[in-house]
Amino acid sequence: MEEKQQRAQTGGITLPRVNEFGLTFEPHDVVHEDVIVPLIDGVPLTEWLELHDDPSFSGVRREDLDAEPFRPGKAKLVLGCDCGIASCGPLVARITADGTTIVWDSFRRPHRGGRVYDELGPFRFDRADYEKLVLELG
Ligand SMILES: [Zn+2]
Q1: How many CB atoms lie under 10 A from the CB of residue 47?
Q2: Nearest CA to 54 among 119, 8, 104?
Q3: How many angstroms separate the alpha carbon of residue 18 from the centre of ligand 1?
């Protein structure tokens, strides 16, 4: 079932079972500073959303994230609204730690009609690599 979902996302290419996590900093069209964008298999999460016909997200400033960004939680902020006010229309995901793996799933936008992105993910990351990157954010 999950493999079928992953094939559907990528147009026929089967992804490895473990995804590669990264963080990048890119300029924001509205906020005149660099914002943090999660990378999944080298692809910015904003582009994954564009594949699902939703270009209305952008990266977030460090101060838009909570004290423990990208740590496990039921509804963790992973992208902000493209207007520059992250909390205006954020994308949240459920982040769970499972042994040596971190899983992102249950992507949804709590505001603005509450769209759920069931077809996005789950993504699995190597926990050690993931935590190293996330800890650098403080
Ligand atoms: Zn907005």
Answers
A1: 12
A2: 119
A3: 32
41 Cα to the center of ligand 1, angstroms: 27
Q: Where in the sequence is the domain holding 36, given as residue range(s)?
A: 16-135
Find where tokens 């982040």 sit.
95
Quick one: 109 exposed, middle or buried, by C-beta within 10 A (0-12, 13-18, 19+)? buried
Whole-structure pTM value: 0.84
Q: CA-based angle 10:108:126, to the nearest 5?
A: 60
136 CA from centroid of ligand 1 (Å):
27
Q: Is residue 9 part of a domain?
A: no
**pLDDT one-digit tens code per residue, 6-23:** 555 556 666 557 999 999
Q: What six digits make up the tokens of 69?
A: 């960004």
100 domain residue, yes or no: yes
Please check whether residue 46 is in contact with residue 58, taking contact to mean a CB–CB distance below 8 angstroms.
Answer: yes
Q: Is 4 within a domain?
A: no
- Asked if residue 136 has pLDDT above 50, the reply is yes
CA of 28 relative to ligand 1 center, distance in Å: 13
